[in-house]
Structures are given as structure tokens and as C-alpha cells.
Amino acid sequence: NNRLHHTKWTxxxxxxxxxxxxxxxxxxxYKNQPALLARYVYGEWSAADNLVYGDTFNPKYHxxxxxxxxxxxxxxxxxxxxxxxxxxxxxxxxxxMPGGEHxxxxxxxxxxxxxxxxxxxxxxxIYQEAPGKVIGVYVDPSxxxxxxxxxxxxxxxxxxxxxxxxxGIQSVNTLLSSDKLFVCEDCVNTINEFYTYSYSK
Length: 201
Prior knowledge:
It is built from seven helices and seven strands.
């Protein structure tokens, strides 16, 4: 988006200095989050139309900081992988707490990932860096080659994910609405997905 690199205000004659500084601050804050940039800087509220998680995702509550996670206890961890050739490839590390809270702790995001070895390396890194037992690596079942290679790479608990979109959306919305799903502030692409994801049957 060329507006990310916008350096001159088209309304210089009509905007006071404090407002200019304020909006430049917002542009810097949201430069890596296009959905928030469009909504809060450019006023494109239409970006909120038909959003899947628009009514359940509350950034003030569901986005948490690293400081809030200090001392957190987890029962186990899961890794989810969505492999895409045309769409981005994403791997998420999720910790599950004793009370059933799910916390997305880490993401690996690669637009148009065509290098399978790179994907495997980064997924294994996330697996090895998990601070506890990983009960499963859940991969899009259409990525059969990736599943095979991950198994060959030593990940014995790679499983085919349930690819039912509607059930997946309902599960995530249930967790959000019951305050059982949180995402670390460092996972900027995942946060942007919560803001922008839409789905039509």
C-alpha cells in the first residue's frame, strides 16, 4: 500500500500540528497492520463489513503482552500449519492453560512460500522452542508432501487438521466469546487476520 510510505499531508493547510503528529504516530504504530491502518488512520470503516470475528474479537482484551505471560502455566502445546502456494503459509504455536485458555504465542508467516525446506525448518524450530510438550502438529490435509516431510524430519505427532471451515470459525468464535482465546502482541499477522478475515459460503 503506497499510503504506508506517505510523507506529505494533502491537507497541510487545514490540519493543526498536534493532529498531524497524532496521525503520523498512528501511521507508525499500525504500519505493519493494514487493517488497523485502513480503519483508524484512513477511516475506511467499510473494512469492518462482513468480518467473521468482528463481533467477538476485542483487541483490548484478547491481545496480550509478553509481560502478562510471565509465569503462565500450560498443560500442553499445539502447532497449527496452513500451507499455501498462492496464499501465505502460517505456523502458529498455541499454549493451552489448565483452565482451557488458548494462547497463540508465536507465529511464522511467509507470503507465497514456495520453498518447502524453509517451511519445514521453521516449523521444526517452533516445535523445538515450545516450552513444554507439543501434543500435535496439525497441518492442512491438502499439504500431503509437507506432512510426509515433517514426519521424515522427526516430528512423529504430525496430524491432518480438520479442514471444515464453518466448524473452525465456530470453534474460534466460541473461544473468543467465552474469553478462552488470546494472542500475543508479537503475532502481528495473526492479529491482522482477526481484524480482516471474512468468509462467504
